Amino acid sequence: MELRDYIRILHKSWALIVAATLAGLGVGALASILATPEYESRTQLYVSVRSDNSATGDLVQGTNFARQIVGSYVDVIKTSVVLDPVIEQLNLDMTSGELAQYVTTSSPLNTVLINISATSSDAEQAAQIANAVGASFKEVVQTKLEVTNADGKSPVQLTTTQKAVKATTPTSPNTKMNLALGLLVGLALGVGAAILRSVLDTRIHSLHDIEQITDKPLLGGIAFDPETKTRPLIVHADPRNPRAESFRSLRTNLQFLNVGGGTKSFVVTSAGPSEGKSTTSANLAISLAETGARVVLIEGDLRLPKVSEYMGIESGAGLTDVLIGKAELADVMHRWGRGQLYMLPAGRVPPNPSELLGSLAMDRVLEQLNGQFDYVLIDAPPALLVTDAAVVGKKTSGLIMVVASGSTKKQGFEAAVRTLETAGTNILGVIVTMLPTKGPDSYGYGSYGYGVEEVEPSKASKRKSAKGKRR
């Protein structure tokens, strides 16, 4: 993926990322609240070696010896020989191994200092343990580890340079650290989930998704309208609607597809069902007729016709009757609206739609209509389900693919394009329907409605019904 892909993913999934970040903060805060406060106290010992004279060489030798043995002393402190007396002295209910987990020892590099730290949920107890461990360690060193001289004194001397005191603030939990860690983890999980969701999402959402599959031009984008089912013919029902304007923009682009002349007959299809091909065909035909052009819309989906239902035309007789010689073309065509728009319904559902659409009779029908009309639009079945679109597409100027944003699968669209190209069908371009009006996948609908009061579809419907009542 490119940088713009990541930016689009972050833009699209910002709510998920914010939610994950807030959840991480919440977990960090909850961990800080539920955690038992821990206090730490530290004592420090200084290790030295006694010398019988104060010569410089003896002093240096004693200091070097002290540095050598300090490393061993650090490991001895957490053994049972040192900790058992502490447990007995403080009456602790634990073993030396358990107590060792709460004791930390260290020695700064190139020094003769030993730091002994003790941690406990009780601040007073932490100080007591640290001091008791220091005292016990002194006793062990001077009476057991180092052999005493003839005068009964150990050559190694340990001096307490700092006694452990009761801590006033807990060292754990570190609320700031927990919150920062929760924020970073939540943010990382949110971004990861957004990228993973995008990678696993095989649906087409934007123009960039289409460009990755085919090099065919984008002819137009149709905005998503939740009232499409109740108002499928938006160009006729609400001409000032932004969605109606998008069909006019599509009309303009369609006029440039055949600049060299010749017939202007187009097949409109999609990869699968419910992608908006029938409503696109009907609205495109209406918008073309608005320019004064003579337009005929053929209901070429002989299996599941929908256009005649949208346009309110009786489909008792139609294209199938003409193809089998049971009716004349002029007898089954219907004029729709005030312009030069004609509708040829599908007629009765035949048992062999593909054969009828590929027959010589269909060639004669198209030849006759191309001579009478400026535009011939054919609403064909989905290309992946049946071969009808590929069959009739070779008889026209070309085929237009309809893709539903957020619905059409990339694999399905790619398979449909490959199938049509293998069949020798000329794919002229792509129309994207159901595009969101906002967000990274939108298609620039903010410019529509210039000089027009923009009204939500639901409010527009209410106003129309109110006007009808006043009449």
Protein architecture, described:
With 471 residues, the protein is α/β, with parallel strands linked by helices. The chain has three domains: 3-35 and 173-200, no CATH class; 39-162, Alpha-Beta Plaits; 207-449, Rossmann fold. The protein is 46% helix and 16% strand. It has an eight-stranded mixed β-sheet with strand order 5-12-11-6-10-7-9-8, sandwiched between helices. A hairpin with a 6-residue loop joins strand 2 (103-106) and strand 3 (113-120). Helix 2 (14-34) packs antiparallel against helix 7 and helix 10 crosses helix 11. The longest helix is centred in the middle third of the chain and has 26 residues, at 175-200. The radius of gyration is 42 Å and the shape is rod-shaped. It starts with a helix and ends with a helix. The relative contact order is 0.12. Residues 55-59 and 445-471 have low confidence and may be disordered.
Number of domains: 3
Question: Which term fits the overall shape?
Answer: rod-shaped
Question: Ranges with pLDDT <50 over ≥5 residues?
Answer: 55-59, 445-471
Name of the CATH class of the largest domain: Alpha Beta
Mean pLDDT: 84
Q: CATH architecture of the largest domain, please?
A: 3-Layer(aba) Sandwich
Number of helices: 19
Radius of gyration: 42 Å
> What structural class should be given to the helix and strand makeup?
alpha/beta
Please give the number of β-strands. Answer: 12
End-to-end distance: 58 Å
